[in-house]
C-alpha cells in the first residue's frame, strides 16, 4: 500500500478517490446522483454538444457555383480548414500571444491583490469587503463602455500618455492608442477580476495556522510565502489563469476598439467579420473550431503540467 | 540520538544576527542543550479579555516543565508568546539570557508542537518533518528526518500526505516535526492527546528520554494530570490566566496552596472551619473547629493560621472502619481528626474502591480504600473515619471550597 501511494501521481490519486467513492455508499447515492446531474446533462447536450456538431458540419459546407453571397450547401470540404489556416494563422498566433501576455499580467497584478485582501487583511472584514467591491464595481458597467473608456485613458492627449512623456518614459512622437500595448492593456483590465476572484477564494480558505507553523520552523515571511502560501494557492492560480486565458484568446472587443487594422487583429475579430459581414459561414465555423480545439489542447497540456499534483 | 548541528551557516541559525551584545551567538553555543526561559510580568490582553495576567515564570535550562490547567485558562496563549506568534501586551521574555520579546518567531530558538498539528497539507510526511532542518540548511537533513520518523514509528508512511493519516499519526508527525530540530526550548501543546494509551505511554518515555539525553528545555501543556505528574520535573497549575502554584509534582499534590489546585490536581476533601487553638502562637499544631468536629493541621502546612480556614485531606489518606471498630494507623487521639458518618455511595474501580461518606456538618467526604481483601462497605453502613494530621493541609478560608472541582 505504502509504496504504491508513494509513487503515485495525482491522477492515480483521483482514481483511488473515485474508486473509494464507488464502493459502499455509492450504490445508495448513485441513483439520486444521476437524477441530480440529469438536467445539466440535457442542457449540455442541447446547448453545447449539438451546436458543436452543427458548427463542425457548417465548417465543411461549400459554396455552389453561382450561388449568392451567404449561400452554402452541405458538403465535406476539409479544404476549408487549409484555406482559413493559411490565411489567418498570424491572427491566430497573435490571439494566443495577446491572451498569454494578458494572463501573465493579470497574474502579476492580481495575485498580490488577492493576497492582500485575503491574507494580509484577514479579520478586517470591512476593508476586505471594500476592496472587493472596488475590484468588481467597474464591471457593473458594460464591457464595451469600459473598453471605450480605456481608449480615452490611452489617448494621445490623455493624462497617462502626457505623464509618461513628461517623465521621459515614452518618446515624444510615440502613441499608445491603436497599438498592441493598448489591446493587451484592455484585455488585462477586462479580465483582471477573473484572475483575482478565484485566487482570493483560495487564499481566503488558507489556514493561517500553517503560516504560523512555517514561521515557527525558521521560515522568514518570504520563505513561508514561497514554500507554503504559493503552493497551496496553485488551484486558485490555475482556475484564474484558465478563466482569463480562454476568454481572452477568443475576445474581439478589445482588439476592435483599442487596436488598429494592421497589426493587432485577433482571431475573434476575423470570425466576427466573416460571420457578420462577409457571410462566409464555413470559414467562420472552421476558424471557431480551430480556436476551440487549440484552446482545448493548450489547456489540457497546461492542466497536465500544473494541475495533477494532489492538490489540497 | 543525533546531535544538534554545528555546521550550519551563521545566517541560517535563528537569532544569531540579532544577538544582543554581550551574549554568545547561538552558533557558538555547545552543540546541544536547552536554554533557560524567563517570563517577567508577561501579560496578554485580547480586546477586553485578559487571557494571561501578569505572569512571572522561570524555567531553568534542561527542565521538563508541565503546564496544567482547565480549558481556556491561557496555556496556549502563554506558549504562543514564547514562540513569538503572539506579542505580549506587557512584560518581557528571555531565552538563554537574551531578551526575545521583540524577536520574530523564525529567529527564536524555539519550536512548537501545535495543539492543532498545523501540518502542511501539500507536503508529504517526510517533507513536513524536514521543513525546519531545511530552512536552517542542516546538512544531514535527510538522515535526521529519517531518524525522527523512525522514532515516532512513521517511517513507513513517509511519503503520504497528512490527509491520508489517522489523527494519532498526524499528531506524531507534528511531534517529529518539532523534535527533529532539537531547539533550545520545545513547546508541546497537548502533543499526545490523540494517541491511545499504549502509544501514549511509549511516546511519553521517548519524549522524556530525548529531553534528558539532549538536555532540552520542554514546556509541556497537557490535560492529563498523570502525564504531567509522571513526566515533569516541575509543573505549574494555571487558572483564569494566572499561575496558581508552581512546584515539583509531588509537592503540588501533597501540599496544594489554593482550593483550585487542591481540587484540580487529584481530588480533595475541603472542610471549612475556624482556628480555635494554636492560631497566634508557635504551637506546631493548629486545631480547627469545623461544624463541631475537631481537626488538626500542622502549622507549616497551612496557608493561613488564624480565623476562617479550609482543612483539606486527600481521599486516599483517610482510614475507614465500621463504626465502633478500632481505627489504627492514624495518630488520631482525643477525638481529633476523627469523624463518624454513613456510606452513601460505593464505586468499585478494581485497584481501589471509592466511597462517598456523609458526615453530619461536613457534608460528603470522598474516601479511597485500597482493595487488600477486606469486605466492601455498603451504602447505609455506619463508619468511622480518621486521618493523620501530617497529611492534612490548611488553606485560606475565604475561597470557594469547590473551586476547580470538575474543571477540565
Ligand atoms: N485571538 C484571540 N482573541 C480573543 N480571545 C482569545 C484569542 N486567543 C485566545 N483567546 C481567549 O483566551 C483564553 C485562553 O486561550 P488559550 O488558547 O490560551 O486557552 P488554553 O489554556 O490553551 O485552553 P485549551 O486547554 O482549551 O487549549 C480563552 O478564553 C480564549 O477564548
Ligand atoms: Mg490550548
Describe this structure in words.
The complex is a heterodimer of chains A (312) and B (408). The longest helix of chain A is centred in the first third of the chain and has 42 residues, at 79-120. Chain A has helices spanning 2-7, 10-22, 25-58, 79-120, 125-136, 143-154, 159-166, 180-204, 208-216, 221-232, 234-250, 253-258, 267-278, 281-307. In chain A, helix 4 (79-120) packs across helix 8 (180-204). With 312 residues, chain A is mainly alpha-helical. Chain B is built from eight helices and 20 strands. Chain B has helices spanning 75-83, 125-135, 141-151, 167-179, 197-214, 225-231, 249-254, 259-264, and strands spanning 37-46, 49-59, 64-68, 90-95, 98-99, 110-113, 185-189, 217-222, 234-239, 242-247, 269-277, 285-290, 293-298, 308-313, 319-322, 338-348, 352-359, 363-370, 382-386, 393-396. In chain B, helix 2 (125-135) packs across helix 3, helix 2 (125-135) runs parallel beside helix 4 (167-179) and helix 3 crosses helix 4. The interface between A and B is medium-sized, with 25 and 32 residues. Residues 46, 49, 51, 69, 71-77, 115 of chain B line the site of adenosine-5'-triphosphate.
Which secondary structure elements does this structure contain, and how are they paired or packed?
The complex is a heterodimer of chains A (312) and B (408).
Chain A: H1 2-7, H2 10-22, H3 25-58, H4 79-120, H5 125-136, H6 143-154, H7 159-166, H8 180-204, H9 208-216, H10 221-232, H11 234-250, H12 253-258, H13 267-278, H14 281-307
Helix pairs in contact in A: 3-14, 4-8, 4-11, 4-14, 8-11, 9-10, 11-14, 13-14
Chain B: E1 37-46, E2 49-59, E3 64-68, H1 75-83, E4 90-95, E5 98-99, E6 110-113, H2 125-135, H3 141-151, H4 167-179, E7 185-189, H5 197-214, E8 217-222, H6 225-231, E9 234-239, E10 242-247, H7 249-254, H8 259-264, E11 269-277, E12 285-290, E13 293-298, E14 308-313, E15 319-322, E16 338-348, E17 352-359, E18 363-370, E19 382-386, E20 393-396
Parallel strand pairs in B: 3-8, 3-9, 6-7, 7-8
Antiparallel strand pairs in B: 1-2, 1-4, 4-5, 9-10, 11-12, 11-14, 12-13, 14-20, 15-19, 16-17, 16-19, 17-18
Helix pairs in contact in B: 2-3, 2-4, 3-4
The structure holds adenosine-5'-triphosphate and magnesium ion (MG).
Amino acid at each position: 500500500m505504502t509504496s504504491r501511494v508513494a509513487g503515485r501521481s495525482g491522477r492515480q490519486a483521483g482514481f483511488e478517490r473515485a474508486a473509494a467513492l464507488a464502493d459502499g455508499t455509492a450504490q445508495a447515492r448513485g441513483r439520486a446522483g444521476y437524477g441530480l446531474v440529469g438536467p445539466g446533462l440535457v442542457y449540455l447536450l442541447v446547448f453545447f454538444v449539438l451546436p458543436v456538431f452543427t458548427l463542425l458540419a457548417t465548417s465543411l459546407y461549400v459554396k455552389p457555383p453561382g450561388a449568392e453571397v451567404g449561400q452554402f450547401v452541405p458538403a465535406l470540404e476539409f479544404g476549408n480548414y487549409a484555406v482559413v489556416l493559411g490565411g489567418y494563422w498570424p491572427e491566430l498566433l497573435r490571439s494566443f500571444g495577446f491572451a498569454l501576455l494578458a494572463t501573465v499580467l493579470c497574474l502579476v497584478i492580481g495575485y498580490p491583490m488577492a493576497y492582500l485582501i485575503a491574507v494580509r487583511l484577514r479579520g478586517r472584514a470591512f476593508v476586505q469587503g471594500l476592496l472587493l467591491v472596488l475590484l468588481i464595481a467597474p464591471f457593473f458597467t458594460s464591457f464595451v463602455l469600459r473598453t471605450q473608456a480605456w481608449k480615452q485613458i490611452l489617448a494621445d492627449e490623455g493624462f497617462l500618455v502626457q505623464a509618461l512623456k513628461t517623465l521621459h518614459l515614452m518618446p515624444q512622437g510615440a502613441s499608445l492608442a491603436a497599438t498592441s500595448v493598448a489591446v493587451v492593456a484592455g484585455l488585462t483590465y477586462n479580465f483582471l477580476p477573473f484572475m483575482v476572484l478565484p485566487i482570493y477564494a483560495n487564499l481566503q480558505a488558507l489556514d493561517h495556522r500553517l503560516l504560523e507553523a512555517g514561521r515557527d520552523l525558521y521560515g522568514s515571511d518570504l520563505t513561508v510565502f514561497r514554500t507554503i502560501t504559493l503552493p497551496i494557492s496553485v488551484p486558485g492560480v490555475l482556475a484564474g489563469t484558465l478563466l482569463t486565458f480562454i476568454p481572452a484568446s477568443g475576445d474581439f472587443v478589445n482588439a476592435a476598439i483599442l487596436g488598429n487594422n494592421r497589426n493587432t487583429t485577433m482571431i475573434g475579430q476575423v470570425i466576427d467579420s466573416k460571420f457578420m459581414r462577409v457571410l462566409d459561414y464555413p470559414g467562420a465555423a472552421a476558424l471557431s473550431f480551430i480556436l476551440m480545439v487549440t484552446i482545448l489542447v493548450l489547456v489540457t497540456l497546461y492542466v497536465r503540467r500544473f494541475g495533477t499534483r494532489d492538490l489540497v | 540520538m543525533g546531535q544538534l548541528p554545528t555546521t550550519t551557516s551563521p545566517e541560517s541559525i535563528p537569532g544569531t544576527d540579532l544577538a544582543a551584545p554581550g551574549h554568545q551567538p547561538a552558533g557558538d553555543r555547545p552543540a546541544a542543550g536547552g536554554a533557560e526561559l524567563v517570563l517577567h510580568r508577561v501579560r496578554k490582553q485580547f480586546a477586553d479579555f485578559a487571557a494571561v495576567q501578569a505572569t512571572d515564570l522561570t524555567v531553568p535550562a534542561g527542565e521538563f516543565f508541565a503546564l496544567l490547567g482547565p480549558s481556556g485558562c491561557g496555556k496556549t496563549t502563554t506558549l504562543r508568546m514564547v514562540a513569538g506568534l503572539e506579542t505580549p501586551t506587557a512584560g518581557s521574555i528571555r531565552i538563554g539570557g537574551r531578551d526575545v520579546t521583540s524577536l520574530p518567531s523564525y529567529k527564536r530558538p524555539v519550536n512548537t508542537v501545535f495543539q492543532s498539528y498545523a501540518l502542511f497539507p501539500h507536503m508529504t510526511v517526510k517533507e513536513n518533518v524536514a521543513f525546519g532542518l531545511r530552512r536552517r540548511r542542516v546538512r544531514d537533513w535527510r538522515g535526521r528526518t529519517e531518524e525522527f520518523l523512525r522514532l515516532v514509528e512513521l517511517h513507513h508512511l513517509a511519503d503520504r500526505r497528512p490527509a491520508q493519516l489517522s489523527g494519532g499519526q498526524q499528531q506524531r508527525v507534528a511531534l517529529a516535526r518539532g523534535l527533529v530540530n532539537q531547539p533550545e526550548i520545545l513547546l508541546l501543546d497537548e502533543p499526545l492527546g490523540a494517541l491511545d494509551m499504549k502509544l501514549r505511554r511509549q511516546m511519553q518515555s521517548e519524549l522524556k528520554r530525548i529531553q534528558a539525553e539532549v538536555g532540552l528545555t520542554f514546556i509541556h501543556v497537557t490535560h492529563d494530570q498523570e502525564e504531567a505528574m509522571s513526566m515533569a520535573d516541575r509543573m505549574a497549575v494555571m487558572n483564569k490566566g494566572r499561575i496558581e502554584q508552581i512546584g515539583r509534582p509531588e509537592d503540588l499534590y501533597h501540599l496544594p496552596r489554593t482550593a483550585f489546585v487542591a481540587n484540580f490536581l487529584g481530588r480533595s476533601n475541603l472542610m471549612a472551619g475556624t482556628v480555635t487553638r494554636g492560631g497566634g502562637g508557635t504551637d506546631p499544631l493548629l486545631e480547627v473547629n469545623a461544624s463541631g468536629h475537631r481537626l488538626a493541621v500542622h502549622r507549616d502546612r497551612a496557608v493561613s493560621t488564624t480565623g476562617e480556614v479550609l482543612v483539606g485531606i486527600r481521599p486516599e489518606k483517610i482510614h475507614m472502619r465500621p463504626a465502633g471498630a478500632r481505627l489504627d494507623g492514624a495518630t488520631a487521639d482525643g477525638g481529633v481528626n476523627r469523624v463518624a458518618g454513613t456510606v452513601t455511595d460505593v464505586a468499585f474501580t478494581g485497584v481501589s474502591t471509592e466511597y462517598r461518606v456523609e458526615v453530619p456538618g461536613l457534608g460528603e467526604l470522598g474516601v479511597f480504600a485500597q482493595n487488600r481483601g477486606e469486605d466492601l462497605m455498603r451504602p447505609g453502613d455506619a463508619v468511622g473515619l480518621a486521618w493523620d494530621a501530617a497529611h492534612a493541609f490548611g488553606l485560606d478560608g475565604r475561597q470557594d471550597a469547590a473551586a476547580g472541582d470538575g474543571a477540565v
